[in-house]
Amino acid sequence: MPQPKQPFVSWGAALFVAIPAALFAIQAQAAxxxxxxxxxxxxxxxxxxLERIEEVGPWLDYFSGLRNGRSPVPDANxxxxxxxxxxxxxxxxxxEIAKAQRSALFSFYxxxxxxxxxxxxxxxxxxxxxxxxxxxxxxxVWLLCPGHGEERxxxxxxxxxxxxxxxxxxxxxxxDFAALDKAKVEWPPNREVRPLVCAAGGTSQSANPEAxxxxxxxxxGD
Length: 222
Hints:
This protein has eleven helices and no strands. By secondary structure, the protein is an all-alpha fold.
């Protein structure tokens, strides 16, 4: 007895998922062939994101150097809209404008992390989409909070406490600032060894935001 033909819609949907996954694999292989240049990517990626979990370490190394002059500062002519937004914030004419622009940048990355239909989330072979996005957000929170030591920690804490509760509860980076439910958190693979992961990678008995902030300060450069 002949088998019924597969509906075109089902076949098309499968193809729609398969093509981006194949392209991602090809791009990942090409990226592995040469070292990740964090400074170049920061300047050239229109909306700055980390595309693979292997980019997290080089990004944090580059980022920590921005504070002490070890890393090159992005050029004002960079095509990246993210770099332009940051430059607009740090050169704002008033503190009120700077705070509003800073809040808008943070909100963009929060919304991006929480968008269930985003292509980068759907095509996420290693399950690190949320972690990569929140690492970038934390970097910018740290960068755009003024001062050093307790002054910066206070600013960073205030910024995180302004994030939506659902975002914080599910974040593998910020979850120490919420009532910790390990089942809700979108953990990255091998979370125990990932920098900036909250609650010691899910192994601590209770959240400790102060201890996490001080660890973050060592990683991000204070």
